Amino acid sequence: MKNIERDEEIYHKREVEGRTLKSIGDEYGLSIGRIRGITARVHRMKFLEKEMGSQCLNPEVMGDIQWNSVRIVNCLINEGAIGMSIEEFIKNFNYNKMMLARNFGRKAIQELCRKLEVHGYKDIEHLKNHQPNSLCDRIRRA
Description:
Layout (H helix, E strand, L loop, with lengths): L2 H14 L4 H8 L3 H21 L17 H9 L7 H7 L2 H6 L5 H13 L6 H4 L6 H7 L1
């Protein structure tokens, strides 16, 4: 299970079902403090999405999307993609190119793809999957 999905489940069990921190922690093998932190973070995310939702319904550039991770924003800035149109980003980037970017890892790429799908971009398989015999592979072999 992905951490994002797990965190949403934990938040739901705590806030909607009203379960105790200890019972949720025991179920997931996490400490009470960790459960408290997860629920607080998800609550902040939901609040920010609600506040920013009207501004981000129809994003045109990558910077318009409400990213859950500062890491993604920083990587997009470092790659010069934060001001790109979303279509241009999809056309010019792929999984391997993003993996070469500093601090742009597998989880950040998964989150980026998830957000693009939420906004209706479906033809992004090249962003999700490793492409063999690419520049990334040649660099690893060297």
